[in-house]
Write a structure and sequence with these properties.
With 809 residues, the protein is of the alpha/beta class. It contains 37 helices and 15 strands. The strands form three sheets. A seven-stranded mixed sheet has the order 1-2-3-5-6-7-4, with helices on both faces.
Length: 809
């Protein structure tokens, strides 16, 4: 009989096998241990549960203890020790029924000395092997539990009890989770065996703070320049299509200069082709010649990049700076999908409506004006007159012919896609205009709208011979290529990578400073908004912005921090820099004093504090981009480190791999389960990290259900695990949001505000985490945690001597 494969053998398969072979189990009461193993235990282990015999050792010697009946290996570690007794040995009180959840072993031990002795013996074996789980059985009755639970004797522990073969059948899924290879690998029931994992965590310090998170009062606000800084920053970034902004601030990231050259060549090539088409059209004598002259099928140019990578500003720079002269003879149509239309079905009407509106408003062309319609459809009208219907109308008189022609034109115009084809050809041949259509902000809409817009862009390029640029996300293009929706529409793909955060911010800070100094006429907008009484602050605001520019130029860690916050999304980056500039925790008076006295660069901790706290005194987990990694929901101390264990593993595999930083979810779950976490809790942690944009799947999906089987860290996850988690400012932030399991420590964790009090509180919290880390205890984790602990401790000690300095905030 072939044994089942461990990973593919599931509970349903096992249950079917159990019911098939159960009649063969002996019910005798005097079978010795070897016979019991042969009759029942081996069949349940290898044929029902699916263990590979190569992974099971029998009669294994443990020094100073004796011989263990069964020792089960999994993933290079001892997973389970099982002690087998003769069939006639009764562990449990006859007739008792046990639930499908763990029960305390104390009552069972008091009533069955044999069971207590057998479990102690098995636990001794398991401890010597380092096995996490232990079980005892006589073939018909099974008891399963943890080898070691801190602070609990064997009698106090929880165990799963299967009191008979009937009970195994009745509670088979639980039995399978307890004793199968896959159940042990993923610690399927470990959360139920620890009381701490079922007891809720105590309340956080934040629960006792009235009005949490408390916002600083105006008197406590440290940033007296927040209003002018906000207005200047918004004026800069809300008008990023301004030509002076593009010339001063646009950055050509990576290979984008080559793509700009390619785009300009395509624009020039389209214009040359249109000139030839126009010349042929001028000689066309009928509609057949017209359509032949116009036939120049094109496909759209896909500008490919993730949200916030700079696709929109790329097109703005191309149009207003790089290829401005080449586009002067183009009719340029902008179709912005930022917040319209609402459904995929409305995409076509929205597109046609925008084209009609912009032709009228920007170029004075009313495509439904009678003269325009007749001019555009001159050759189709001539063909209509030669048709049977037109000839018949002409025989009936001029009035009937004109009425038939009017109906023909009305019907023709009703098909907007085809009519626009004639409109654009008319503009090319009659006025020498090429046509370009720019589909922007599609990547910010749902996938169905993106795909419909892309199909419309393809039709526009093909039917109208227009130069069409369309912005798409890589995930949309990848998915559409798989299902065939867009797989043939884009022979030209322009990939956009985000510029380095430090370079982009330096340019924008410099530009904002020049604006504040009055070197750009747009300053009048800011002055009008400020009013005369505070307009004098513009000079000071310019100095703060100069300091910001110099800081990101000189301090590489600030660039890493902003990259981590933004995840490569320029829009998010701009928002968080704004939050820093207007934060009540940014001490602009101190910055100005130090800047004026010989120069100053912002420190990472003060920028982080400004962004994490905003105007509040406390960290707000619902508002901050950075997760509290140490938060817990149960009273299990090892839960403090679940997200840290996951992030560290993914970061370790990010570099130096040919898999582009990806780990399989199976690898991640297996690693975390090796540290004692259940697969269920690991999946929950992965989902939380994914939804907070700490990691991503191969298809760049935003939906966890469609993430696939691999994940890799994003910039935010890497920055958090490599830098932020090691800082005092982060520990100081999350302490109020973390349940403390040690009540003595909890009494020492108070709501404080001064730097000296916060340092002392952080030191207490760090010692508590260090003690809690012992609950994880694996060698791999104990390699990671001391490094983080030491970095935080050193950061705290580095700050202490500077308590009197104005540099600390």
């Amino acid at each position: 009989m072939n044994e089942p494969q461990e990973q593919s053998w599931v509970a349903d398969d096992a249950f079917h096998k159990f019911r098939t072979i159960r009649p063969s189990f002996s019910s005798g009461q005097d079978a010795n241990e070897a016979t019991t193993r042969m009759r029942v235990i081996d069949q349940i282990l290898f044929e029902v549960l699916g263990w590979d015999r190569a992974r099971v050792d029998t009669e294994t010697f443990a020094r100073d203890v004796g011989f263990a009946d069964y020792v089960f290996d999994h993933r290079a570690s001892r997973a389970l020790v099982l002690e087998a007794k003769r069939e006639g040995t009764t562990f449990l009180v006859s007739g008792d029924q046990y639930p499908d959840r763990p029960v305390s072993f104390s009552l069972l031990a008091s009533e069955s000395k044999t069971a207590a002795a057998a479990l102690r013996q098995a636990a001794n074996y398991a401890n010597s092997y380092g096995s996490r789980y232990v079980a005892i059985t006589n073939g018909h009755q099974w008891v399963f539990g943890l080898t070691y639970v801190p602070g609990e004797s064997i009698e106090d522990r929880r165990v799963f009890v299967f009191e008979s073969l009937d009970a195994i059948e009745r509670k088979f899924r639980v039995f399978f989770k307890c004793l199968s290879p896959i159940g042990l690998l993923y610690n399927a029931v470990i959360g139920q065996l620890f009381r701490s994992r079922t007891d809720p965590a105590p309340s956080k310090l934040s629960a006792s703070i009235a009005g949490y998170p408390v916002v600083r009062t105006e008197a406590a606000i440290r940033n007296h320049l927040r209003v002018p800084l906000q207005l200047i920053w918004e004026e800069v970034n809300q008008n990023d299509s301004d030509q002076s902004f593009l010339q001063e601030c646009y950055i050509t990231p990576g290979k984008a200069d080559g793509t700009l050259q390619l785009a300009q060549e395509l624009i020039d090539q389209r214009k040359r082709t249109d000139a030839i088409v126009a010349e042929k059209a001028a000689r066309a004598s009928d509609v057949g010649d017209l359509l032949s002259a116009a036939k120049s099928p094109e496909k759209p140019i896909v500008v490919l990049g993730r949200i916030g990578h700079g696709k929109s500003i790329y097109l703005q720079y191309l149009r207003q700076v790089r290829a401005k002269e080449s586009l002067e003879k183009y009719i340029q149509i902008d179709v912005d999908f930022l917040d319209r239309p609402e459904t995929p079905e409305a995409v076509a009407d929205y597109l046609y409506g925008e084209i009609e509106r912009q032709l009228l408003e920007n170029y004075g062309i009313d495509i439904y004006d009678d003269a325009t319609v007749r001019g555009v459809l001159r050759l189709p009208t001539l063909r209509f007159r030669k048709s049977v219907e037109g000839t018949l109308a002409a025989r009936q008189g001029q009035a009937q012919l004109e009425e038939a022609e009017a109906q023909f034109l009305a019907n023709f115009v009703r098909d907007r896609q085809i009519y626009l084809k004639h409109v654009f050809h008319h503009l090319r041949s009659g006025q020498g205009h090429s046509v370009s259509v720019f589909f922007d902000n599609i990547d910010r809409r749902i996938d169905a709208i993106q795909e419909e817009a892309a199909l419309r862009a393809s039709a526009a390029a093909r039917d109208w011979s227009a130069l069409v640029f369309i912005c798409l996300r890589p995930g949309t293009l990848q998915r559409s290529n798989l299902d065939g929706a867009l797989d043939s529409i884009a022979p030209k793909i322009i990939s956009i990578a985000p510029p380095k955060a430090a370079v982009m911010l330096r340019k924008r800070f410099d530009y904002a400073a020049s604006l504040a100094r009055g070197e750009n006429q747009r300053i009048e907008v800011v002055r009008a908004a400020l009013g005369k009484e505070v307009a004098w602050d513009l000079g000071s605001a310019a100095e703060v912005l100069e300091c910001c520019a110099d800081s990101v130029r000189r301090r590489a860690e600030l660039g890493s921090m902003f990259t981590g916050i933004a995840n490569g999304n320029n829009r998010v980056l701009i928002q968080y820099v704004r939050q820093m500039l207007i934060s009540g925790n940014l001490n602009t008076q101190k910055i100005l004093e130090l800047w004026r006295s010989g120069g100053y660069t912002l420190r990472e901790h003060e920028v982080a504090r400004a962004i994490i706290f905003g105007d509040a005194i406390h960290y707000d987990p619902n508002d901050c981009k950075f997760l509290n990694l140490f938060d817990i929901e149960t009273s299990d101390p090892r839960e403090h480190f679940l997200l840290l264990v996951i992030l560290e593993f993914m970061n370790r595999h990010y570099e130096g791999t040919q898999r582009h930083g990806y780990c399989t979810i199976e690898e991640i779950v297996g690693h975390a389960c090796g540290s004692g976490y259940s697969a269920e809790s690991v999946f929950a942690g992965l989902r939380q990290l994914f939804e907070r944009e700490y990691c991503e799947g191969v298809r760049f999906e935003s939906n966890w259900e469609a993430v696939g089987d691999r994940l890799r860290l994003r910039d935010r996850g890497r920055y958090h695990i490599t830098s932020l988690v090691k800082s005092f400012v982060y520990l100081d932030a999350v302490v109020v949001d973390t349940p403390i399991l040690d009540m003595d420590v909890r009494r020492r964790i108070r709501d404080v505000d001064t730097i000296s009090e916060r340092l002392e509180r952080a030191a207490v919290f760090l010692r508590y985490l260090d003690e809690s880390a012992k609950a994880v205890g694996t060698s791999d984790f104990m390699r990671v945690w001391p490094e983080i602990h030491s970095a935080i401790a050193n950061d705290i000690e580095d700050i202490r001597p500077r308590l009197q300095s104005t540099v600390v905030s």
